[in-house]
Design a protein that fits this description.
Elements lengths: L1 E3 L5 E3 L2 E3 L5 E3 L2 E4 L44 E6 L2 E5 L4 E7 L2 E5 L9 H6 L6 E5 L5 H4 L10 E5 H10 L9 E3 L2 E6 L2 E7 L9 E5 L4 E3 L12 H5 L3 H11 L6 E3 L9 H24 L14 H24 L6 H18 L1
Parallel strand pairs: 9-10, 10-11, 11-12, 16-17
Antiparallel strand pairs: 1-2, 1-5, 2-3, 4-5, 6-7, 7-8, 8-9, 13-14, 14-15, 15-16
Helix pairs in contact: 5-6, 6-7, 6-8, 7-8
């Protein structure tokens, strides 16, 4: 580090360094080397930013918790009505549907895919005849190749395209594809599949069981929880917003989001919709109210990436501050992902 002179310049033996931000330690002031961390920004949120280790995360609200899993089994099965079951390890969720002569499996997360046949066997001796992919992501269907037999695999056309590009033996190519809608009727059981655009990912579909009034949409709404970083890594954030608002109007009683420990209901979807709209409003206001180049070292005035980075840092700080009081105890994982969410939202508003 280098000593700060009375004039405000950082001086070394070789001359003047034009760094402005300084850290004062007792009676002696120092400023950081170029590229190193300087003084904190003003109004830093109480939620730790990326790159800073959190000693203890916010307590998970009781409203976000689901029943515990049996550690000896590594999974939990929950009946959702008339032969439809959710399977979870309290991190991922999948479904299976029992009909008169077989079983339809919906997703096969690799974290517990080896347990899926055993979980089904606890309910029925019938074989797996069909598999539905919610979308192409490996964390949801990466255990598909381990399913016994040769089930018919159904997916949206974009999912097939992405899997053909991936060439992953653990995610077999679907044999039945559709564009907008597909109805699977097996025995007396029905599943309605529909595609509503990119949102989280190309090919990500809605899976609706009309007799059971259950809707599964993966990685879009996580009941009681924040979505994963960068709004679940969504490819189309305006599309994600449209889908959440659309889901809230659909005729379901139980919602399955593909992650964490419990199922949800319409209230959970409405809470997520409100969170997203608050996030958009906070990011929009921060983008508008934050001055460009306000705290940048004059020596960096010709560095466009320095100017942009400094501006977006301060925009994100104001966004996180605006969201914290209302949401830090309302959605589990707020402290893990609010910075990522604000950044993703600001980038979407700036570019989409």
């Amino acid at each position: 580090m280098r000593q700060l002179t009375e004039s405000g310049d950082c001086r070394m033996a070789s001359g003047v360094c034009a760094t402005v931000l300084a850290l004062v330690i007792g009676p002696i002031a120092w400023c950081a080397e170029a590229g190193q961390a300087g003084a904190p920004y003003f109004h830093m949120p109480r939620i730790a930013p990326p790159g800073v280790q959190i000693d203890h995360y916010l307590t998970v609200p009781e409203s976000a918790r689901g029943p515990p899993i049996d550690p000896a089994k590594g999974y939990r099965t929950q009946e959702l009505g008339r032969g439809l079951y959710m399977l979870t390890d309290n991190m991922y969720q999948s479904l299976f549907l029992v009909y008169e002569s077989g079983v339809v499996v919906i997703d096969a997360p690799p974290s517990y895919a080896t347990h899926i046949p055993a979980a089904i066997a606890e309910v029925t001796p019938l074989p797996i005849t069909h598999m539905i992919y919610s979308h192409s992501h490996i964390d949801h269907i990466g255990g598909a190749s381990g399913m016994p037999g040769q089930p018919i695999i159904i997916a949206q056309r974009e999912t097939k395209r992405l899997l053909e590009e991936a060439k992953d033996v653990h995610r077999p190519i679907p044999s039945v594809v559709f564009d907008q809608q597909y109805t699977l009727q097996v025995g007396t059981q029905v599943l309605k599949l529909s595609y509503h655009g990119y949102g989280h990912s190309p090919g990500n579909i809605y899976i609706y069981a009309p007799s059971q009034h259950v809707l599964m949409v993966v990685d879009v709404v996580l009941p009681g929880w924040m979505s994963y970083r960068s709004l679940s890594l969504s490819r189309d954030i305006p599309g994600l917003f449209r889908q959440v608002d659309e889901i809230a109007k659909m005729p379901f009683d139980t919602f399955v989001g593909g992650h964490v420990s419990r199922v949800g209901d319409r209230h959970d979807v409405l809470v997520q919709a409100q969170y997203l709209h608050d996030l958009a409003a906070a990011a929009k206001k921060s983008l508008s109210d934050t001055n460009f180049g306000f705290t940048v070292d004059p020596a960096d005035g010709t560095n466009p990436w320095a100017l942009a980075d400094n501006y977006m840092d301060r925009v994100t700080i104001e966004c996180v501050n605006a969201m914290t009081d209302k949401w830090e105890t309302s959605l589990a994982g707020f402290d893990a992902y609010i910075w990522d969410h604000c950044i993703a939202m600001e980038e979407s508003l700036s570019a989409d």
